[in-house]
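WARN  no MSA supplied for this record, continuing single-sequence
INFO  ligand: iron/sulfur cluster
INFO  echoing inputs
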Amino acid sequence: MPYFAGFQLKGNWGLSSEVELSSPQIFKEASASGASLLFTPTISLRDPLESDERAYVRFKLISEGPEGAVLLTRPLSASVDEVRALLTQEYGDSKVVLSFAVSSFAEAQQLLEEVGLKPDAYELDANLTCLLSGKGVAYAFEMAKELSATLAKPLIVKFSAASANLIDLERIVADSGAAAIVITPNVVYRIGNHFFRLSTPPWLSTPLLFSLAERLSELDISVAYVVQYGKGDLLELVPLKLYDASYILHWMRWKGSGRARASAAPLAWSSISKKLKVYARKGASYCPYGLIRGEGFVEGCNYCGACLELNEPGLVELAALISP
Ligand code: SF4
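INFO  complex generated
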């Protein structure tokens, strides 16, 4: 069984912090199905698109077809309260990792104080930290060094395979004091206040991970790899897999619409007036929070947008409740 960040794990898979819809049901069931590591969605001090009047969706299906799905999710959209709710559940012998991104060490202290709960370990997302701070990946590793010297639990650093090619990996990882690293083939980017994470199918992402294999094998540190959910000859070689946002589709048993479709990646997340409610018709499903239970208005919705993307047109609509 793999050894990671000081933990002897019960299995070789878990949920990455890229499962950005903070569903307690997904966490619970993944743990019961054998997930050894549960990373929370990455949080920061605030959601950059926070608004009292409008909600911004968190999930978009860019394309589907025989090669797999391309998904877009909105990092930093989970609130401290949502992540605290995840941290207060019991997960047996699964380890829980709190993922965060900040622009400074002081922000990290403030954020962890606000969370106020102790996970089994922490994850610093280096690429989101770069986007928040406007600085390079070396700055994120400097912050990791400060954090790992002060945190009472192990610190894991996550960064993209693309940025690994830009740094002196061996030196910078050793200097950071990280207990383990997570490598993702998926990219994060921002346009204004809109943050995006693009999850791509294995045929596109796996070669990027394997191009790093030799350099990573020389590191004296345990490594986990973010991959899309599914089986594949190459993916079976990965010693510790953390599933990305595609796990949400698996959890909801989404089989695809049966037709090839593709849309351009948006330049901004679409928003929904909070005066509107999701109305589900007979046959609608695909809510990561398990809120769609037959026909009617959905209560407690956080407007993640998954049901609007994945159901056939007309099954889910936005409607206003009008009082007489
Ligand atoms: S009802 Fe739809 S928009 Fe609301 S939480 Fe569920 S999937 Fe997301």
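The longest helix spans residues 137-150.
INFO  checksum written, moving to next record
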